[in-house]
Structures are given as C-alpha cells and as structure tokens.
Design goal:
This protein has 364 residues and is α+β, with helices and mostly antiparallel strands. The chain has 2 domains: 122 residues, Carboxypeptidase-like, regulatory domain (Immunoglobulin-like, Sandwich), CATH 2.60.40; 151 residues, Protein Transport Mog1p, Chain A, CATH 3.40.1000. Helices cover 16% and strands 29% of the residues. It contains 6 helices and 17 strands. The longest helix is centred in the middle third of the chain and has 14 residues. It is globular, with a radius of gyration of 22 Å. It starts with 6 loop residues before the first strand and ends in a 22-residue tail after the last strand.
C-alpha cells in the first residue's frame, strides 16, 4: 500500500493511511450550517505488476451525510487481491445539488488539494452561482456512476453552454440574438457542425453481425442506448446488449462527432473514464487502451474527422484487449457511415421502444 498523500487529523500530527476509516463534516461555506443528505462516494484504487504496472480495479463506498452534515467511511475491504496488487489511492467525491462539488484530490481550477484529512475533515461547499459553468463542473466532477445519475439535469445545460460558446442560439431566444448564418460572427457554419434539429446516428458504425464475425458470439443482440449521456446532434451511444446474457457479454460504443466544445472535453471524458492510461497509437495517434476485471476499453480521437470514440467490451464478448482494439479499428474504418436523424416527437432521450430489454443497464 502506498503512503497517503494527506494528513491524518486536522489539528494533530498523526499517521494517515489510504486504508481508512475516514470521517468529517460537510457545511455551507457562506453560513457554516451543516449540509444534510449530501452524497459522498469513496473510491479506493489498486494497481498490480512488478515491471509493467497497470490498474487492477477499485472499491467504492457510497453514503449520505446525516442531519449534522457528518459522514463516516469505513476501512477499505481490500477485496481486490493478487500477488502484486497494491492499494495506491483514495478519493472522496461529494455532491449536493445547488452547490459546487468537492473532490479530495484536487480543486475546481485543477490544482492539487492539500487540506483533506483522514479524521475530522471539514468540507465547506460553495453555493452554485449563475456565473458558474456546468461544462467545467461536469469535467471537474468526472463522477462515479451513482453521482452521474444525480447530475443528469446538468448535462443538457452543459450541452447548451457548449452550443452557445460556438455562437449557437438557445431554444426560445429571439433570432435577433444570433447573427445571420448562426455563427458568432455571421460566418457560414462549418459543414460538420451539428444541427440542433437533428440527432447523430452512429448505429451503423459497428453492427451486431460485425461483432459476431470478430468475437464468434452466436447469440442475439438488442440494440439500445446507454442512459448515462443524452443523445444529441453531436453525441450518440450504442449499446449492443446480449439477449438473455450477463452484462459481461455486452458491448457499448460512444461517438462524438464535431462537438461544439471541440475535442478537448471528449479527451477529458476518455481520460477520466480510463484513469492512468497514456495515449498510444493502436487506432489513431491518440488512442487509449485499458483493461480491468471483466472489461476491455479502447478510446480514440481522430482530429481530422473531428470524431472521438469510446468502446467498452465485456470479457465474455471480447476474449482479450486485442479483440477490442480490432473492433475499435472497424469503427474508425466505418466513420463514413455516420449520419443524422431528424428529431421527431418525442425528441432525443425518449425511452427505448417497447420490447427492448429491461435489464438494468451498466457499462461493461
């Protein structure tokens, strides 16, 4: 186990350990009043290996603060085991709607946080201001799944901010607020810029038959969409759900095409999803390859095509990471299949059609 990078106690010099337990109080920064029902997520991360070191998974603990704003995180269960497995980091994430989120390892400006302590930690949450950016907030948060569900409401607002930052007009605003042509300077929009009256369609980039050809899987797939991100004119996620099988037989790929905020938010998303992975060149010059228990993942960015892709494949579908890389290459080869779909009523984000699998969706 690595040494803890934080203090053991607020007012005393004591030993600190990644193992825990951890406790503290969450208060309103301006009033000092305790904040009840704030969601806290504790994440212990592991790596393994002697010469070649790689990620080995994580453990998560979730809870909410009590009426006094207090939280307590028990010791790590240390269930991730192996001959060369090490506990290498601990991170605490706090989220409460109406406040700026908290992370124990860094500040909202990206700098390192140095005031986190194991015992009697005090977290002062800053109230959300109208001038705060939902885009920057979601990138900073890079949240575990349980908090992603709490931040769904911010995703549309973040997409709207990105659209406005590129000179687009929001729904319901007078046309006079947008220069002629839709751009910030009145110039003709880029031909690859997303249109708000259409949805990106990436369903043809990797078909069930192509997956079966590569993986040898003989079963059926139900084609749905992952629910963590809303489909837009520049984003589409496709979930190939193995009918009647466990989630380790599933495959999901997510595609961003000419996003209004450029490729940096896409890269940030890929790197936060695949922690500790350095870019390599398996698919494009900017490719991220990651494997952990039960899942293989490949992300890549093609700057010339203005496209980013993140593919995750369960280990019962993809036999190894090389299979996942090959499938990612097929997606890259098929980028010319990207298309647009006119928005109908109901619009993007409508529930899957009747008959779609009802098994709770999890990213492989």
């Amino acid at each position: 186990m690595r040494p803890a990078p934080f203090k053991g106690f607020r007012d005393q010099v004591t030993d600190a350990s990644l193992h825990g337990p951890f406790d503290g109080q969450i208060v309103d920064e301006s009033t000092g009043e305790p904040i009840a029902d704030a969601t806290i997520v504790a994440v212990w991360s592991y790596d393994h290996g002697d010469g070649f070191i790689g990620p080995a998974g994580s453990e998560i603990f979730e809870a909410t603060t009590d009426e006094a704003g207090r939280y307590r995180v028990p010791e790590a269960k240390l269930e991730v085991r192996g001959p060369t497995t090490r506990l290498v980091s601990f991170e605490l994430v706090v989220y409460k709607r109406g406040y700026v989120a908290y992370r124990s390892n860094r500040m909202t400006d990206g700098s390192a946080r140095t005031d986190f302590t194991v015992r009697h930690n005090r977290i002062a949450l800053q109230k959300w201001r109208q001038t705060d950016s939902h885009v920057d907030h979601l990138v900073f948060l890079a949240a575990p799944r349980s908090i992603q569900k709490l931040t769904y409401w911010e995703q549309d607002l973040a997409n709207l901010e990105l659209f406005r930052s590129q000179g687009g007009a929001a729904e319901g605003l007078p046309e006079a607020e947008t220069p002629a042509g839709g751009g910030a300077t009145g110039e003709k929009p880029d031909a690859k810029s997303p249109r708000k009256d259409t949805l990106l369609d990436a369903s043809a980039l990797l078909t069930p038959d192509e997956v079966r050809t590569r993986t040898g899987y003989s079963g059926e797939f139900t084609v749905t969409e992952p629910t963590d991100l809303k489909r837009t004119s520049f984003y589409h996620g496709v979930h190939l759900q193995a009918t009647g099988q466990s989630q380790t037989h599933d495959l999901i790929y997510r595609v961003w095409s000419a996003p209004p905020g450029g490729m940096k938010p896409v890269i940030d998303t890929i790197e936060e999803t695949l922690p500790g992975v350095k870019p390599s060149g398996e698919v494009t010059e900017e490719t991220w390859v990651f494997e952990t228990k039960g899942v293989f993942a490949v992300g890549f960015v093609d700057r010339e095509a203005k496209v980013g892709v993140l593919l995750t494949c369960g280990d019962q579908q993809c036999a190894d990471i090389h299979t996942a890389i090959i499938l990612a290459k097929w997606i890259h080869r098929n980028l010319d299949r990207l298309s647009e779909e006119a928005i109908s009523t109901p619009t993007a984000g409508a529930p899957a059609a009747a008959g779609a699998a009802t098994r709770e969706e999890e990213t492989p």
